[in-house]
Amino acid sequence: DLGNAPDDALTCMRLARALAQDNRLVEAITTIRDQLIEVARVEIPTEEKKAENKLDNVKNWGAQLGLRVLLAELLADRHLYSRALTAINQALALGPVDRSPLLQKKANFLIEMRRYEAAASFLDEAELEFPDHAGLRLERASLYAETGEYEAAEAIQRSLINTYPGHVALKAQLGQTLLW
Prior knowledge:
Blueprint lengths: L6 H15 L3 H11 L11 H6 L3 H22 L3 H13 L6 H13 L3 H14 L4 H13 L3 H14 L4 H12 L1
């Protein structure tokens, strides 16, 4: 989706990333927010138009989606999960082509906010839509570990390691679970 964003949005995203790397979070967020359009005012293209990638509304839609995802990532990097969750919810409202990465981020933010019941309920729904999504399963394992269900977390992590044997973050998470 980001490849179809207008140049001004891409420039904005690059500038925001550079400002964030320079620990100028307020300026980075302001740079992004200056480009945001209210979700209700963003024209969400039909599936056919998304596939064509030729119309300006598709480009504007992609830019608005990308800006919100970047905003969520920057906020999460600074442990501002409540605000990051708002940005992800807005991105999901725009109807992304692939919802699964955003659903994974949302689950992660809920877990980081220690809203375990909401995270469990959300993961139940997300896993119905994407039953074999490794990222969602990894978030489920994180939820189990955070709530003290270490054996359930370990079982999920070990099954994922069998599928992705070289996944460094997964190995680190399993190691942490085993230490608990």
